[in-house]
Specification:
Blueprint: H1 7-24, H2 30-37, H3 41-69, H4 71-90, H5 95-109, H6 113-123, H7 126-157, H8 160-181, H9 198-207, H10 211-237, H11 245-249, H12 256-272, H13 274-291, H14 297-325, H15 330-381, H16 389-398
Helix pairs in contact: 1-4, 1-7, 1-8, 2-3, 3-5, 3-15, 4-5, 4-6, 4-8, 6-7, 6-14, 6-15, 7-8, 7-12, 7-14, 10-14, 10-15, 12-13, 12-14, 13-14, 13-15
Length: about 400
């Protein structure tokens, strides 16, 4: 049976697609926003960074809210509000209004990624969790890529406002399909303690033998991914490659690899276990980024493709591991994603410092060190006991 014929898998694919299409669709529109509102590139970049920052902050708060009102209602509301905010962006009379709408979009989308991971951890049997999580991650990768490309095409053919309006309409349709397809929770137990319980639950997660290491992997993985794509374009525009900007922009098509690798990794993890294959996938990321040091363009592109393929596989494995180990605890998923986005900021900034001083060689050196640390963490996790005792207590309290 086709994996997407299962209603949960189909809903999660649409949810991941819409979430990241709406989040990243503004990226190719930044030059147009600069022209429209007389902005510097740094000011135009706020249209994306303010959304991701708001999303990171909202992740943890949303996990506590979902523990009280349930997973599905919050996710449906997140997708619907984000779609409406995107429609409002198309009507913005000034840049301040656009930033306000993008901030609210980020806050709303904070109610999607971590809650989706928690929902899957609660509702999906362990033997199928990897596949379901892989489909959600593949939908996210596909949405991020299509959102960028669709917005770019529509803005060229019409205007950035038409592009935003079209993305908003697509978001509304995706939210409806998500609501229609996703089954109601069967294993969710509301926790009345809510916000008061968060500090204790957070201490419990950090006291666990495995979760802090998985949070560290999230930090390293996304930091490496963002850094690579931030600065590879500078290298390809310069000698000896000197590619045109339009050609360099086409590297976003490599995100298509995430659609396949996340599902492949999920099946592999379900069959052999995450402990046995995660460090191998991280090794592929390391090999890919080292290969980009070549002065031969096909080797650079092959290295970036391998790096991208392995990133989405590793992210699929680690995120599903958090959901399984935390038994669906939304806070654990939120913390994973908080460190995920924090890594993109911290490592991305550090890579920029090294780019200014040592070029692409410096960037690769930093990312290689990060990935070696990630491999060491994965090897350490092979000794991890299957279930953390404190999470059993959390689930008992939830009941």
């Amino acid at each position: 049976m086709n994996a997407l014929s299962h209603p949960t898998n189909r809903a999660m694919f649409f949810g991941g697609f819409s979430c990241f299409a709406l989040l990243y669709c503004v990226q190719p529109l930044m030059p147009l926003l600069s022209h429209e509102f007389a902005l510097s590139p740094a000011q135009a970049s706020l249209s994306l960074s303010i959304s991701t920052a708001a999303m990171a902050v909202a992740l943890v708060a949303s996990s506590a809210l979902s523990d009280r009102i349930g997973r599905k209602p919050l996710m449906v509301a997140a997708l619907a509000i984000a779609a409406l905010m995107t429609l409002l962006c198309a009507l913005a009379g000034n840049y301040g209004q656009l930033l306000a709408a993008r901030t609210l979009l980020g806050v709303a989308l904070g109610g999607m990624p971590a809650i989706a991971m928690a929902y899957l951890g609660e509702e999906i049997e362990p033997g199928q969790l990897g596949l379901s999580m892989g489909l959600y991650i593949s939908g996210s990768a596909f949405g991020g890529m299509v959102g960028r490309m669709a917005a770019s095409f529509l803005s060229d053919a019409y205007s950035w406002r038409v592009a935003m309006a079209a993305m908003g309409v697509a978001g509304v349709l995706a939210a409806f399909e998500f609501w229609r397809s996703l089954p109601a929770s069967r294993r969710f137990y509301p926790r009345a303690a809510g916000w008061r319980a968060m500090p204790g639950a957070m201490r419990g997660h950090f006291a666990d033998d495995g979760l802090p290491w998985l949070f560290a992997l999230a930090f390293l993985l996304m930091g490496c991914m963002v850094s690579a794509y931030n600065y590879i374009s500078y290298r390809l525009l310069a000698a000896p490659f000197e590619l045109r900007q339009s050609v360099v922009g086409g590297i976003s098509l490599l995100y298509l690899l995430g659609i396949f690798s996340s599902v492949w990794a999920g099946k592999l993890a379900d069959r052999y276990g995450r402990k046995g294959v995660l460090y191998l996938v991280l090794g592929l990321m390391l090999a890919g980024i080292v290969l980009t040091l070549s002065a031969w363009l096909p080797a650079v592109l092959a290295g970036l493709a391998l790096f991208t393929f392995a990133f989405f596989a590793a992210h699929s494995m680690t995120s599903s591991w958090v959901g399984r180990r935390a038994r669906g605890a939304a806070l654990a998923s939120a913390l994973y994603l908080f460190f995920y986005y924090l890594g993109s900021s911290v490592i991305g900034w550090a890579a920029g410092v090294l780019w200014a001083r040592a070029g692409w060689d410096g960037v690769v050196a930093l990312l290689a060190l990060c990935l070696l640390a990630a491999v060491a963490i994965a090897l350490h996790l092979r000794r991890l006991t299957p279930i953390a005792p404190m999470l059993s207590q959390i689930k008992a309290e939830a009941g």
